[in-house]
Amino acid sequence: MRWRIPVSLALVPHALALWPIPRTLKAGTGFLVLSPQFSINVNVADPPQDLLDAVSETEGFLKTDKLQRLVLGRGSSDAGALTTAAVLPSLTLTLQNTLPVLPISAEAVKDVANRSEGYTLSIPGDGKAAVLSANSTLGLFRGLTTFSQFWYDLNGVTYTNVAPVSIVKDIPAYVWRSFTPTEEGWCSQSYSRTVDSCLTLLAICKSFPVADVKRTLDAMSWVKINMFHWHIVDSQSFPLSLPEFPELAQKGAYSSSEVYSPADVQEIVSYAAAHGIDVLMEIDSPGHTAIIAESHPEYIACSQASPWSTFANEPPAGQLRLASPATVNFTAALFTAAARVLPSKYFSTGGDELNTQCYAQDAQTQADLKKAGKNLEQALNTFTQATHGALANLGKTAVVWEEMVLEHNLTLSNNTVVMVWISSENAAAVAAKNFRLVHAPSDYFYLDCGAGEWIGKDPEGNSWCDPFKTWQKSYTFNPLANISAAQAHLVLGGQQLLWTEQSDPQNLDSIAWPRAATSAEIFWTGATRPDGAPLEGTEALPRLHELRYRMVQRGVRAIPLQPQWCVLRPGLCNIDS
Amino acid sequence: MRWRIPVSLALVPHALALWPIPRTLKAGTGFLVLSPQFSINVNVADPPQDLLDAVSETEGFLKTDKLQRLVLGRGSSDAGALTTAAVLPSLTLTLQNTLPVLPISAEAVKDVANRSEGYTLSIPGDGKAAVLSANSTLGLFRGLTTFSQFWYDLNGVTYTNVAPVSIVKDIPAYVWRSFTPTEEGWCSQSYSRTVDSCLTLLAICKSFPVADVKRTLDAMSWVKINMFHWHIVDSQSFPLSLPEFPELAQKGAYSSSEVYSPADVQEIVSYAAAHGIDVLMEIDSPGHTAIIAESHPEYIACSQASPWSTFANEPPAGQLRLASPATVNFTAALFTAAARVLPSKYFSTGGDELNTQCYAQDAQTQADLKKAGKNLEQALNTFTQATHGALANLGKTAVVWEEMVLEHNLTLSNNTVVMVWISSENAAAVAAKNFRLVHAPSDYFYLDCGAGEWIGKDPEGNSWCDPFKTWQKSYTFNPLANISAAQAHLVLGGQQLLWTEQSDPQNLDSIAWPRAATSAEIFWTGATRPDGAPLEGTEALPRLHELRYRMVQRGVRAIPLQPQWCVLRPGLCNIDS
């Protein structure tokens, strides 16, 4: 169906509080008050419980957000208009197709090509009910998220100043919109490249405690991020407890309380799915596996070799003996054990920062290579075939870091998804090899850059990926730079990443938010705003301020991007104003 | 008195959990358990209430810190030794002189030259009572702080592994050890130099809410910082409510709830003093005063002039009309109103980043200068004489930023304290002019550097003082670099600073801690550790980890400096290991 567009609808006002901005949007300038008896009516036969839960959560936000407008006077001048404004009695949710109704949780973990995230939303300005419709419960969830962002508070009155609203069809520009607060098992990594750090946070109190992960998932869902890239283990810690390999966490976790039990993983995966988020778990290999030596020294080369910087990008050194058949079998079984209980169609096998010096000095690897009559690259190919094959047997698509296609000559299925991290410029090379890719470039999207060197005895050292990536810089990212039109279909989307050598629950939110929302908009909204103009920071900033203030109201410790003086005076703190 | 040093006392163990490390310290390697009935006995006649409160707080920390040792196994291997260890029954506090006993609060706000912060502490290893003695309650407070850092937890047993301990005399090397989480009134500043930002945090919910300030004062006291530099107002907001000038906050604060009432100020000042901290309030002048135009446009030149970057280092532009006699009188009265109710002997009048373009285009200032027959420098001298004179009338010493002595030719009392911020290299020039100085160099001690540009429409911009100042970099600071022995007495101490354009309660702790502790040790401990070796990061890091973990246990959101893998293996994550 199509919504009738009232005459008063116009281009989006300057500071409309939506993030990401819908791809289509018309809005007015009228005031509309939310009825104190406002209700959300689910016009869906046998509605799934997670849809009902999402409705309840949305109703909760409408009651508790209490965000005043971010203008001088904080909306006090609206008081008069509110006394005569129309009152919105309800929002009705409908599904537009006749297929069996699946829960949000089921829709969210489909292959990205088959996820239906679009929705249509109408908020009349005359007191008639609002209507949200979609082809799936996941689309309804996205629409609820949008609906919840319209509302301000003034003296207990909940209202919008942009009625009526018509969003004819808001469908994401890219199917893969992720965030990697790489819950990398509370290890952490990546001296010179950072990619394999895990969320040290988690390391401290059971990796990131489940509550911190859930809060992060909440914030992700508010900006329609649909993938959680969970780099759950790394060189320093193995917090993932697997029934088939209990020794890995027993000996590799920081402590028995700093472990993700199978129940914890299921809780997180279920929570994510109910919030429209698929979980891409990563067990990095063959590098970044030093901690496995605690339980299986036989599988690890150059374990804690010194100096670590010769054998790894971060301490401690240690890599899977990829030329050893026993190690190959172990790794394939490990991936199977981890992936088989996950609903996602994707699983990441890592593949970054492989160090050849580690293998050159490892007698067993040299013997294994000699025995097999292979060089290291050939052995890596065998390793990859076997480990990816294990995932294929489960119907899972492998996800790898860019080195696996750009630095090694492997036989990889072109179904493989490649994460581009070393430089944004490498996306073109990945696309040229006809691989699907996810943008995760350190030069735009690494949230931990700029926080200084954490390696000891290096007083003049800075973070390897200096400078800090401001939201403004991230927001200039162009997903199709150097990508031809014919290759554009290979670009699945993108994600911001947080490696956590210097993070834990104390600063998780403040590092991630609101900056991680910038890629969420780039990959949802795409190249242009509803008015046809390209995405541009000056327009975006007031909306990002609103998102940030709303996040704080909802308990996420997002940081201010500017002094409040600037927030209340859009543009006056621009460099040229 | 001198403590008898048992034979087993030796140089400090590697990871002794003290920060700052005492100037004299001998410790053993024995285990000593804190008695479940452990008590602190105050052997002081008519002990002041704040001393008793400090004792209670210390007893609380001993019960609740519950910090496990930061070694592999987290101290589990200590279990056997603890079963046979001696038990410490009590700590006795004594004063060593016969002067009238003053509260900590009174001792903490004396002229820095007259503060007595030293203490002597003995913790026998044989079950005899520990003894803490000092010449003042403030010294006892410092000693209690040290005492509280010795203790670990293992399965509910509180113990140390470095008994016996003898600290013959721990007296700070420098009298001025400060932190400037410049509660600058929740404004924020300093585009190109940052110095005048205020804690935007405060701006959001009543500047920094009083609770956040108190928590910061707590953390400061744990590392023996003795000055809180409270940059309470700035260009963007005037949250300081003064009975004599109510209009300044009424019109200049972000909202009526984002104001420090006189009661709030007194609460903070009292809380600080009871924790051994003097409050140096700053009302920056004549620059960084744009917000005063909201209530007194007659006193402000170039109010919100555009482009702001021509007239100020941060938006908005606006400076006191320093050539106007009425403005001079207003400013002197303002300083008097703010300073007269504060117990501190110090008050900062600011003086940074004066913009001459602002005055060149201000017709009134040009007329005022012409009428007085003065040039701008002469008028600034008159302004300074009058405003500093107002403080002198209250018995207060003026504190200024370095420009007032290095960039302007003013007649200033040599009693003035000068804060060196633009560059550490400028300290020598200040000393050469025979002014007392406090090190606050942006190239070592600015905590906000490296977090990106916050000015709008500047996607490639980074923070003006990039890169991020790591604790390791800060820790290399030498207070006496380029200072002659004859000038050394001019160096009062130093402080780390946080300007808060991009801070608020969400990230206050994580930006400040544990980094702000580095200067606390530099200026307490001085050039050498108790074993005579110079301060050096590799030795310091394990102690700083312990401080950080202890802060987290006490509710301060200090961030991890390294992955826990490194924390538990001192040295193995060094760059050369």
From TrEMBL, chains A, B:
The highest taxon in the source lineage is Eukaryota
Q: Does the keyword Cell membrane apply?
A: no
**Active-site residues, Swiss-Prot/TrEMBL:** 353
Ranges for domain Glycoside hydrolase family 20 catalytic come to: 208-526
User: Which reaction equation describes what this protein catalyses?
Assistant: Hydrolysis of terminal non-reducing N-acetyl-D-hexosamine residues in N-acetyl-beta-D-hexosaminides
Cross-referenced Gene3D superfamilies, in alphabetical order?
Answer: Chitobiase/beta-hexosaminidase domain 2-like, Glycosidases
The name this protein goes by in its record = Beta-hexosaminidase
Q: Which positions fall inside the Beta-hexosaminidase eukaryotic type N-terminal domain?
A: 18-149
Q: Which GO terms describe its biological process?
A: carbohydrate metabolic process; glycosaminoglycan metabolic process
List, alphabetically, the SUPFAM superfamilies matched: (Trans)glycosidases, beta-N-acetylhexosaminidase-like domain
Q: Which UniProt keywords apply?
A: Glycoprotein, Glycosidase, Hydrolase, Signal
Q: Which residues form the signal peptide?
A: 1-17
A GO cellular component entry from the record: membrane
What family is reported? Belongs to the glycosyl hydrolase 20 family.
Question: What Pfam families does the database record attribute to this sequence?
Answer: Glyco_hydro_20 (PF00728), Glycohydro_20b2 (PF14845)
